[in-house]
Amino acid sequence: MNSELQKVETAQPIETGRNDTTKPRSTGGVYMPRVDVLETDDELLLYADVPGVKQDDVSLTCKGDEMVLHAACAPRNAGKKPLSAEYGVGDYYRAFRLAEQVETDRIEASIKDGVLTVRVPKAAAVRPKRIAVTSG
User: Fold this and answer.
1) CATH number assigned to the domain comprising residue 101
2) SS3 helix, strand, coil % of the chain, rounded to 5?
3) What are phi and psi of 126, to 5 degrees?
4) CB-CB contact of 123 with 101 (8 Å)
5) pLDDT at 12
């Protein structure tokens, strides 16, 4: 696993004393979304599968060395009798520890086709610096 971003393996919300953004809002289950984390010289890229989630239902918070993803998915078939139900609906929750310095005020997130993309820029102090070599 990437040394820059460490997963906090839990499907249950961490009680942090913060407001209800860390607690499930739906009556369904709490699911740990599958996440890919990639690293470049300048940033960490996080791709989380959150099918059925709308942009307004995503909460991404960063405090200290912890980044918390919480997303709610409303039931799709409310008021209908299911004949077969293989897809669970509920909240998504995942917490990550940021092992290196990052620029939290520059974190960007977008959602498209059920995939949440989070860009976490590394702090300038930990980015590799290319040194020019001159002839001389």
Assistant:
1) 2.60.40.790
2) 10, 40, 50
3) -105, -5
4) yes
5) 40
